[in-house]
Amino acid sequence: MTETAALPGFAGRTYLFQVDNGAAFRNAYSADGRRLRWEGLGESAGQWEDVALHVAQVGPQVYFVSWTEQSGITVSHVMDLAALTVRVFWTYEGEGGRVGELHTGTLEQLA
């Protein structure tokens, strides 16, 4: 579900998303900006999922993007398309309960 009325700036584009912890993903956004197919790279190679997005534009070329994966992982990005940076918060089940991690990352437009 998309909360923005206008087409998001990332719609129809594909990015290499490199996270500060060494993880990397190929993120391909649908033409309407409502879905994401992420593919893990490096240690996460072979992992992928097609997910529905929740999107809100929070500034010029800045988007809050969130989704829930089948595994129960939740991911929330603040994407700055002008600076090609991302702040990401994800949560997952860990020992003793839910774990949350805050990371930064960079984007490189591939297509």
Short key terms for the protein model shown above:
about 110 residues; mainly beta; Lipocalin; 9 strands; about 60% strand; MoaF-like domain-containing protein; Calycin; MoaF-like
Question: SSE string, helix = H, strand = E?
Answer: EEEEEEEEE
What is the radius of gyration? 13 Å
Tally the beta strands. Answer: 9
Could you give the distance between the termini? 23 Å
Helix content: under 10%
Look up the CATH topology.
Answer: Lipocalin
Share of residues in strands: over 45%
Say which CATH homologous superfamily is assigned: Calycin beta-barrel core domain
Q: What low-confidence regions span 5 or more consecutive residues with pLDDT below 50?
A: none
What is the residue-mean pLDDT, rounded to a whole number? 95
Q: Sheet with the most strands?
A: 9 strands, antiparallel
Structural class: mainly beta
Number of helices: 0
Number of domains: 1
**Known CATH architecture:** Beta Barrel
How are strands sequenced across the largest beta sheet? 4-3-2-1-9-8-7-6-5
CATH top level is Mainly Beta
* Broad shape: globular
Protein name: MoaF-like domain-containing protein
Pfam family, one: MoaF_like
Domain MoaF-like: 11-94
List the helices and strands and how they pair.
Elements: E1 14-19, E2 24-29, E3 35-41, E4 48-52, E5 54-59, E6 62-68, E7 74-80, E8 85-94, E9 97-109
Antiparallel strand pairs: 1-2, 1-9, 2-3, 3-4, 5-6, 6-7, 7-8, 8-9
Describe the structure.
The chain is an all-beta fold and 111 residues long. It has a single domain, classed as Lipocalin, CATH 2.40.128.20. Helices cover 0% and strands 60% of the residues. It has no helices and 9 strands. The chain has strands at 14-19, 24-29, 35-41, 48-52, 54-59, 62-68, 74-80, 85-94, 97-109. The protein has a 9-stranded antiparallel sheet with strand order 4-3-2-1-9-8-7-6-5, with no helix packed on it. Strand 7 and strand 8 form a beta hairpin. InterPro entries: Calycin (IPR012674), MoaF-like (IPR053892). It comes from Kitasatospora viridis. Residues 11-94 form the MoaF-like domain. This is MoaF-like domain-containing protein.
